[in-house]
Amino acid sequence: MRVALFVPCYVDLINPEVGVSMVRVLRKLGVDLIYPEGETCCGQPAFNSGFFDEARTVARHFMDVFEKENWDYIVCPSGSCATMVSHYYPFIFKEMPETHRSESLGHRVREFSDFLVNVLGVKDLGAHYEGSAVFHCGCHQRRELGVLEEPRELLRSVAGLELLDWENEELCCGFGGTFAVKMPDVSTAMADEKIQALLKSGADTLVSGDSSCLMHLSGRLKREGHGARVLHLAQILDSGDGKVG
Amino acid sequence: MADRTEFLEAIRHRTRTGKYKPTHAPDIAWTPKVEPPERERIEDPPARFLQELEALGGHGLRVESTREAREYVISLAKEWDAKLLVRWDVEELETLGVDELLGAAGIEVAVWRDLKDFREVAGRADVGLSTADWAIAETGSLVLASGPGRGRTVTLLPPVHVAVVPVDRVLRTVPEAIEKYVGDEAGRLPSNVCFHTGPSRSGDIEMSLAIGVHGPGDVYVVLVG
Amino acid sequence: MHTKRPSRERDADDRREEGIASKVEGFNERGRRAVADRDLHDAVALATEKFVTGRNAVLGALPDAPELRERAYHVKQETMANLDRYLEQMASAVEARGGNVFFAEDGEAVVRYIGDLARLRGTKVITKSKSMATEEIELNRRLEEEYAGLNLEIVETDLGEWIAQLAGDTPSHIIGPILHMNRHQVADILSGVAGEKLPPNVEQLTRFARGRLREKFLTADIGISGANFGVAETGTIVTVTNEGNGRLVTSVPPVHVVVMGIEKLIPKFSDLSVFVQLLARSATGQKLSVYTNFVTGPRGEGELDGAEEMHLILLDNGRSDLLGTPFEEALYCIRCGACLNVCPVYRQTGGHAYGSTYSGPIGAVITPLLKGDEEAKDLPHASSLCGACSEACPVGIPLHDLLLKLRNRQVDRGLASKAEQIAFKGFEKTMKSPALYNISTKAGRTAQKPLLRNGAVRPLPGPLSGWTGSRDLPPLAEKPFRQLWKEGI
Fold this sequence. Notes:
The structure holds 3 protein chains of 3 kinds.
Chain A: E1 2-5, H1 9-13, H2 16-28, E2 32-34, H3 44-48, H4 52-66, E3 73-76, H5 79-92, H6 99-108, E4 109-111, H7 112-119, E5 128-136, H8 139-145, H9 149-156, E6 159-163, H10 179-182, H11 184-201, E7 205-208, H12 211-223, E8 229-232, H13 233-237
Parallel strand pairs in A: 1-2, 1-3, 3-4, 5-6, 5-7, 7-8
Helix pairs in contact in A: 5-6, 5-8, 11-12
Chain B: H1 2-17, H2 45-55, E1 59-63, H3 66-79, E2 84-87, H4 91-96, H5 99-104, E3 108-111, H6 118-124, E4 127-130, E5 134-136, E6 141-145, E7 160-166, E8 170-171, H7 174-179, H8 183-186, E9 192-196, E10 201-202, E11 210-211, E12 218-224
Parallel strand pairs in B: 1-12, 2-3, 2-4, 4-7, 5-8, 7-12
Antiparallel strand pairs in B: 5-6, 6-9, 10-11
Chain C: H1 8-11, H2 25-36, H3 38-60, H4 65-81, H5 83-96, E1 100-104, H6 107-121, E2 125-128, H7 132-136, H8 139-146, E3 153-156, H9 159-166, H10 183-194, H11 202-219, E4 222-225, E5 229-231, E6 236-241, H12 245-251, E7 255-261, E8 265-266, H13 272-283, E9 291-296, E10 309-315, H14 338-342, H15 344-349, H16 360-371, H17 388-392, H18 399-412, H19 418-431, H20 434-448, E11 452-453, E12 456-457, H21 465-468, H22 481-487
Parallel strand pairs in C: 1-10, 2-3, 2-4, 4-7, 5-8, 7-10
Antiparallel strand pairs in C: 5-6, 6-9, 11-12
Helix pairs in contact in C: 3-13, 4-13, 6-8, 10-11, 16-18
């Protein structure tokens, strides 16, 4: 099985450690990984703001990169980026020459936890992390991909980690891409709602499969002076021997 | 009339020339994401009806005979200290025979027939008495249809509504009730059919429940048979 | 006390030229005020949570809920595809029962029709039950202004709507119009009407309201209602209330006028089975609302009550423009309010922040569609696109996808800000060229150095100030992933 890495632009540029953890976890499971040349971005920022033409240009480049070889799977450590390719590429290329390409590519893109549990059939990675955590499921991952239980199953198998419930867990964190800067007060209020739930749960760690959500929530946590640790699922699964991610 | 034709033409044009055809039936999954239960078969519709009605704050009971029903209605009118009771002008209520006994207890009875000012009567009445076309077990609803002698406001204006319903009129589900008014079986659709489901309520002020705004706050259903 | 009637003029010019974060002022501005009002937040959170919990319970218990939703979608789809035919059928059916039918192009036509009718009948008092269509066209205000000589008293009879009307306010939620008010505010308003001080006690306030409104129910000359559904086969209109005001408005006055959007039609009486089961469950978590009322024409032969005269006004007001377009699905809405209840944005802002008759996700979709992009520039952006609305919609309207399409429509029509256009052109160029991507991000890593403080980008004016105003912004990493990969992981 040959697996290509789809590393979202903000993971590449801001949170590369997430990509590194994902690679280490997959390698430990014996997966043959390739990082295709020329990857940049899936185009979601333009798409979310209504710039469909610009998104299509970027999407075409993405498809070119990932069609170079016939990978079995394309794994991505982000629910929202995986959704962009698997669900919204067919949406923007509907009734256009690229329809077929977009659909066939879409089928092979898998979010990281989905890949671990449903393709590799693995739940316990032998990870060790001391702490109590709540899991925030990104909206696309929850609704378009339907991958809600898998991350929790993975976290429950981590030694030393206590997975807690928290209120209003289905509420969006308020990032929404450009929404975060277009409607900053509303976006921040949404983050505050989640943070309140986090504090109420007593967890010391916030985990998610989407770095974008984490960037938004941790940005607010830091500004408000809260000490909770904010980590990507891949980093937790890559933890052990007293070291995180 | 010219306006109407133009209006419809414009719409016809839109629907003929419109290019977009929605292709997916709802394609995003639906909450709640639970395994839907089996379609249960309501074994005892009258019992279920009474249960649902009680849960809504209504009062229900089942009696075996018309005599018992009559006694119950009289006792209710007395309990509510009614001065005026207004009732449907239908054979079943004639047979129920409450008029004389109520009169004897000093309670005026207005029958829904030849009323000069229906608003005055229904508006003044303390109790409204009716039967029902059907009852729905699944929701605790009464199905009330209008017609000669069957005033809508009898079941709506007085603060207390009492319905006496033969037990064999209790249907199981909402779809069954709607079916009764479809096609030949139903004959001509009455000018008004209403499903009354429990006492009138409002949660408009601070989401606190207020009962009896504006319809009856007290609903009694007597199933007979 | 609280938000005033939103005015179109105030929100007209809400787009800034500078900044990629062209802050869509209108919504965020109003949202900010709402967010600062913790009482409002608590009220909205309480109400919506209650509705959602109820909804999940009753829909979870309904065996064929997912199938019903699919059928509802298809019924609406079929109706829209043949709307002209169903409208004709509806009109014939109503007329066959002795009702009158009027096709109204827009709000003005409705105002004329009702005003002229009122003049003809010497009307003094009009009672109204809930009708969003009449709010959309501002019927009350226009009747009062354009037919001032008639001295019409128009009374909203839904408890919350009446209280809002008395306060000169507008409803903030489809199902719970005065979610944004507490009992003290209500007591103040009603005390003004009562001419004496009423205590902030729900039971007593309600009793007062009941008495006052009863007078109006009984003396009204005309009753105006909306309709949740119109059945083409039989000419039946359906109103749904918990209070009973819908039935009182349609049964007591001698004249009954229905104002119904053309998209509310469904083909057959048996189709009601699907919608009646979904509506109340989705809206409030009840199996059925207390009064589910089917009215077919004026009163029948030999009946003492019920309207003697019935008028059905079928309103277009921009709806037909959506037929056959990628936005058609917005017309499938049955006005249950489920999308408002699950929306995480609505939860923070309440309904008035949307500045329109229709709020929440459906409001954000339908307002620009009916009023035009210019009128409602900010609404398609009043969403984080989480999709909870589409998930909750009992008819399966893909609301969040429609919002995306609306954003795209704005871009295609040249309504996006200059700065955003430039930014995304730049984005396009950079992201399609790995070489350019590498060069520009490398430059970014260098350029950010003087802007960093304590490991974060310090708050700055300019494009990202929206973010940095309330949140820390992480810096670009020293080495991007691609470099780490090259160096070996």
